[in-house]
Amino acid sequence: MKLDHINIRTSDLEGVKDTFIRLLGLEVGDRPPFSFPGYWLWGNGHPIVHLTVEDGEPGPDTGALNHVAFWGEDYDGLVLRLTEDGIAYDDRVVPGSGVRQVFFKIHHHIMIEVGFDPAA
Q1: Residue 58 reports pLDDT greater than 70
Q2: What domains can you pick out in the chain, each with its CATH number?
């Protein structure tokens, strides 16, 4: 089993798309011709973030989902982009493994985690 994708319903389709592209380097890719607007954002040859339009605020509470995690390769680049965009982030190191993590929130208070290999 592996994670296929996440879906985010948003009233700010272009803003959320642009944020994922700028901060995480995802790319707009092929998407079936659904009858409603949206984007599929691709990473590593796979559509991992699906964006769909929502009139008004996002729908009902989806439960206890805390954050969405990605694995990155450019720690310094992400931290620079977050700083340039004025986005607060929390930098952590996983005890025992040295894995570096960066946590930050984007539109609709969505918590994003990006993990990186331990510092050399």
Answers
A1: no
A2: 1-56 (3.10.180.10), 65-120 (3.10.180.10)
